[in-house]
From TrEMBL:
GO terms for molecular function: oxidoreductase activity. Required for the assembly of the mitochondrial membrane respiratory chain NADH dehydrogenase (Complex I). Involved in mid-late stages of complex I assembly. The keyword Oxidoreductase applies. Residues 29-148 form the FAD dependent oxidoreductase domain. GO terms for biological process: mitochondrial respiratory chain complex I assembly. This is FAD-dependent oxidoreductase domain-containing protein 1. It comes from Pardalotus punctatus (spotted pardalote).
Amino acid sequence: LGGQQEHPSPYFWGFPRYVFSWHCPNGPGLSCPFLIDTSGAYFRRDGVAGNYLGGMSPSEEEEPDPSDLSVDHDYFQEQVWPRLARRVPAFESLRVRASWAGYYDYNTFDRNGVLGPHPRLENMFLAAGFSGHGLQHSPAAGRAVAELLIKGRYETLDLRRLGWDRLVAGEPLEEHGV
């Protein structure tokens, strides 16, 4: 994975990602949805006062050092901002107010979540590796883990295919919708 350093887990890894916050009083209105441009730049409104959040994942060649969580402001100026300004002309005058970095965590085996009891550690349940879909999948994943803990089985949704068995067997869960 892009010359990454050895990590204690062979399946879960994170790459630094930057999020930028800016003000643009003439930007898209309240009806503007979360938007991902075809270039990969994305943004969404942040409240009602002309504030926005956004960023863009770097190419594999531009991946930042995973041990450094300092924000690369040049990346925004050179890569993100021009794409945003092409998509939304009002963003030509945006002003970055804040930024932060965090890890984009995912399952390197097949880029799908891993859910359920650990195959070797008794009484350990996991819901991890969902990458950028974690927030979207969290209601179902939370319910599934709760059912496993309380009832000992899935009841609402059968999510066994997201279990550890596929990792142990070396059989990735192919995602055809991406």
